[in-house]
Amino acid sequence: MISTAKFDFLVNHYKKKIFNYAIYMMKNQMDAEDVTQEVLIRTWQNINNFNFYAAKGWMMRTTHNLCIDFLRRNNKMNYNEIHIEEDYHEEIADTGIESNPGKLADKIITDDEIKAAIDRLPERIKSPFVLYELQEFKYKEISKILDIPLNTVKVNILRARKQLQKELKKYANEKIK
Amino acid sequence: MQMRKSNRLDQNLIDNIIRVVYGDAGIFDWIYIHLKSAFDKEIKTLLMDYKNTAKAVHHLKQQDVPDYIIKNVNKRIDATSVRKSIFTVISHELISLFGKRAIPATVIGFIIAFVISFLLLREPEPIYKYSEIEIEIAEQQLKHSLAIVGKAFQTAEKNFNEEILNNQINKNFNRGFYLVNNILIGG
Which one of A69, A134, A168, B50 has the fewest beta carbons within 10 angstroms of its own beta carbon? Predict the structure, then answer.
């Protein structure tokens, strides 16, 4: 009885976070649904084995691991390396009014555009970005979920923000052409 | 060398702009970036670009989980999806309340505050005040009682001295001494 009540509580509070994180990782709803179901079943199977107050982190870690396993199995991982732009003058000049007709400041970015841009991010930086910006986890929680150092979390989120900006700019320029 | 140094500064500036628009920066960085953007068009454009993107990211809505997923899960774990027994409802509510650490501490705090308030604010036991007449009557009764006790002791003393000591003990001793004198000493 208590287990059922605990499980119901966890499902009601965290199912949306699990599902939406899985959607961003898997890039399609069907696979995300499978992952979500599997996470919830594993939560039930381990309901008496983990600390109830740490359930949120446990469930998200399980979601992340299942997504990674699935992507690896299907060779769908995005292994693109991220190169940090060293020539900053060019980057700033590029945002000038004359040279950048696709300037983002005046453009309304739709949900689909931003989701598509997030989808194109490599998994390594997408995971912490989605967990922080969209799922509202804290740096420390993300560090535990992804099992990476705290500084790496911060650096990857910063890289994701920059890469996202580039993706959107590229998309805006392509649309104009 | 100078180019590299200015590259590093610009990268720091970009990083600070990103932190400001995504809400990670402190108040001083926020003021610094906005002041700088007020005097530099390129920095202002960059700031607005990132601001636009950050706003779009933070306004993304989360998708609802389809109901059939939960139903499938419940089927697979062989649990009834809705069991409205009183015990389940109560335990669900209690776990919802006590799932958050702050709630038990608050409840305990309330209980302690209630107990302390009860102890401090309860009415003290009434002190009964006697009237003067009642006190006089009590004194008279006490004297009367003491007088009775005193008389009883006097009577007992008199009886002991006259009856017991004189009649019972002294007389027998004297008779005994008389006999001893007459028989043994012959005097």
Answer: A69
